[in-house]
Amino acid sequence: MSDALNAIRAHIKEHGSVPTSFGEVVVEKTLLGQGGNGLVYPVDFEGPAVIKFLAETLSDKPSTKYKRFQREYRRLVRIPTHPNLVRLFHYDIISLGDLKIPAIVMERCAKSLKTHVLELNDKRLPVDELRKLCRQMCSVIDHIHQHGVIHRDIKPENILVRDDGSFVLADFGIARFDPELFPGTDLTKKGDRMANFAFSAPEQFEKDAVITTSADVFALGQVLYWCGTQATFRGATPPRMASVDESYAPFDEVVLSMSRQQAAARIQNGKGVMDALHGDEEHRREQEWHKHVIDSLFAFEAVLRKCAPGNRGIAHFTNKADIDRLFTALAGICKPNELWWTQGNANDAIRTMSRDEDGTWVLDGTEYNVTDCWVSRDSGLDRCFVLMRSEAMPSFGIYGDHEYDDEMVGLVDGKYISANEHDDGFARIDGEIVEVSGRSQLRQRFMRPNYCFIATKFNSVLVQQADRILDALIKAYHAGKSVDEQELRELWKLPKHPVSQMHD
């Protein structure tokens, strides 16, 4: 082997090329890699490529390594192409003086996965890239398995990264080829190293063990774990990937299922891995959504409890200080907890709540002079709501007489402009036309008393079944009907949000 190594290095150093059946192939002198089987150099082979030399010369009795090297190429070229399978271009016997050295020309990739991860600042693959790695490797291992090949040596050094960021499975030096699809003598001999301990399945170290496709699934699970933790594991309770970075949480259960010690207990193929990952992610998203709903209901109830302590049923606020205290507290939770307003026939999210200097409350640009609030607190979180009444607001005074119940204007530096000017982005102010785009804020007023319910999106008054009932109530209030607290209590019979029902 040393003669072959020295001959290859010396020839490339002197000539910068090697003779092939295609003629001289230019070889860059930077050695890319050296392993037990040989050397890898970059070459120009009608474009970027690498040449992998077996560090042995041919003799009357070819070695097992040579046979495996040769058959790796011959068998891989029979497998249909796959976007994440290394591309092989040419096999040749390179004559260097009296030495004849086997070589394979294959595609050149930017780096190995191991190098890529170790070059990152925190030496951890970002979760989006980890998902891509998982998806592409699952696809390619299913592809080779379907064509009778078990890789048996999946590890970060044998996964390459192309310039476009895609991942490539390479180095099939110890792969098992199904003898029914690839007839020939089994080249594995007693004492041959058939695995890398850190990443390979435990059965690969057992005498006479049957190696199945799940061995590649095990190795891929260890690769995914290593990409997030810089470690591999054995056993059922490794440190969670989420303890390193919470974004890895979706992989924890999947990696465990890929890495069971017993081959039959593992996920058996790449599709199973992706199905489990999608299922776990969907379950996790569902759990996070359920938590968000319940947290929002609790946050809203906590505001009402703080602003109406000791009250059960309906509390009626008319005092300006009480109303301001309630609305200030609601403003503090409106966005993360999805506060909405509803009148039955219309509803929308409340994105902003603020108070002007004159005490007017502004909800998403609509101004309210709030005179009454009915605060509902029952034993259930779903039954909480606020009914708000605001008195008629004065006209903005820029449209003259009209019969509309509401007006909408733009507000620029304390001056009102028409809604059309706001939309156009230009307005006549103090006799000059000025650009107002990005500076004008829409404002709306109702020139009659106005009522609406306020709650989270998940309270009973916001479920679809409530629309008809609330629409009738709001229309009656607008027509002059007084608020009947008993009618408000009847709203406690409205259906609950489906998530809240599950938590009863």
Total number of β-strand segments? 25
Helix content percent band: 25-40%
Structural class: alpha+beta
Shape: elongated
- Low-pLDDT ranges: 180-193
How many DSSP H or I helices? 12
Rg, alpha carbons: 36 Å
Note down, in words, how this protein is organized.
- Helix 7 runs antiparallel to helix 8.
- The protein has 12 helices and 25 strands.
- The strands form 7 sheets. Strands 13, 14, 15, 16, 17, 18, 19 and 25 form an 8-stranded antiparallel β-sheet that branches.
- Helix content is 32%, strand content 25%.
Compile the SSE list and pairings.
Blueprint: H1 2-15, E1 17-20, E2 23-26, E3 33-35, E4 38-44, E5 48-54, H2 64-76, E6 88-96, E7 99-107, E8 111-112, H3 113-119, H4 127-146, E9 149-150, E10 159-161, E11 167-169, E12 176-177, H5 214-229, H6 249-258, H7 270-307, E13 313-317, H8 320-331, E14 339-342, E15 347-349, E16 353-355, E17 361-363, E18 366-377, E19 385-391, E20 406-412, E21 415-418, H9 419-424, E22 426-429, E23 432-435, E24 441-446, E25 450-456, H10 467-478, H11 485-490, H12 498-502
Antiparallel strand pairs: 1-2, 3-4, 4-5, 5-7, 6-7, 8-10, 9-12, 10-11, 13-18, 14-15, 14-25, 16-17, 17-18, 18-19, 19-25, 20-21, 20-24, 22-23
